Amino acid sequence: MDVEIRGLTKAYGSTLAVQDLTCSIGKGEMIAFLGPSGCGKTTALRMIAGLVTPTAGEIEIGGRSISGLPVHRRNIGMLFQSYALFPHLTVAQNIAFGLQARKLPRDEIARRVREGMRLTRLEAFADRLPSGLSGGQQQRVALARALVIEPSVLLLDEPLGALDKNLREAMQMELRQIQQRLGITSIIVTHDQDEAMTLADRIVIMRAGRLEQVGAPAEVYGNP
Ligand code: ADP
Ligand code: ADP
């Protein structure tokens, strides 16, 4: 298994946001954390990203514990509903940002930025600012920016939540195709059952901080 989560727990005072979450994610697999608002999905994802410190539990990626590692050492790509692009940087500059921070050679950065723009069909927008792009295009920039660092895991926090229904469905397909083509191990947080069923190989259903059920879409939502 590529990602191993064991006994992951987060308490905020007397609130157990996540309680004893244990699950495994295979290499190249796309898992959805699904459940109603407040069930602990985002907290679980943020602990994997290193943005929230667990109260208890262990997280391994590729057989190595990442519990002690700061965010920038985890080599994790993240996508948020809000895109979180840099407004004063062009599309290419936004995609290049994490590569420049890692001090990769110039030609390697240029190669990866071109590849990222090709994968997300943004070549024609390289020199545009985010404000000149549609919501779907902005989210593709954020996706390219996350992918060019060649992350070991991609974490997606309600990434399509701000898009209207038609665009959301188109982006689900696109996201799934890119994820499968790259074979990148991914976790998506969503409260949308249809989205989880479209995108995920397996669904982790959460309720009140706990894992309630886990299985392939047909197993957790199969005919009774
Ligand atoms: P979801 O992503 O499923 O909507 P969250 O992980 O955001 O759920 O929240 C789970 C629970 O933890 C909720 O009861 C929420 O109010 C609580 N919670 C989340 N973040 C904090 C925080 N920073 N401080 C206190 N309570 C929090
Ligand atoms: P620099 O930081 O060298 O002044 P820019 O600010 O123009 O360059 O772009 C930042 C990064 O984005 C550079 O590393 C460059 O490789 C990449 N980049 C910029 N424009 C393009 C483009 N049209 N195609 C591919 N890569 C680009």
Automatic annotation (TrEMBL):
Enzyme class per UniProt: translocase
Any GO molecular function: ATP binding
Top-level taxon of origin: Bacteria
Keyword list, A-Z: ATP-binding, Cell membrane, Membrane, Nucleotide-binding, Translocase, Transport
Keyword Nucleotide-binding: yes
Any GO BP: quaternary ammonium group transport
Gene Ontology annotations for the cellular component aspect, listed alphabetically: ATP-binding cassette (ABC) transporter complex
Keyword Nucleotide-binding: yes
Domain ABC transporter: 3-224
Catalytic activity: ATP + H2O + polyamine-[polyamine-binding protein]Side 1 = ADP + phosphate + polyamineSide 2 + [polyamine-binding protein]Side 1
EC number, UniProt record: 7.6.2.11
Role played: Part of the ABC transporter complex PotABCD involved in spermidine/putrescine import. Responsible for energy coupling to the transport system.
Family (UniProt): Belongs to the ABC transporter superfamily. Spermidine/putrescine importer (TC 3.A.1.11.1) family.
Oligomeric form and interacting partners: The complex is composed of two ATP-binding proteins (PotA), two transmembrane proteins (PotB and PotC) and a solute-binding protein (PotD).
Name of the protein described by the UniProt record: Spermidine/putrescine import ATP-binding protein PotA
The species this protein was found in: Enterovirga rhinocerotis
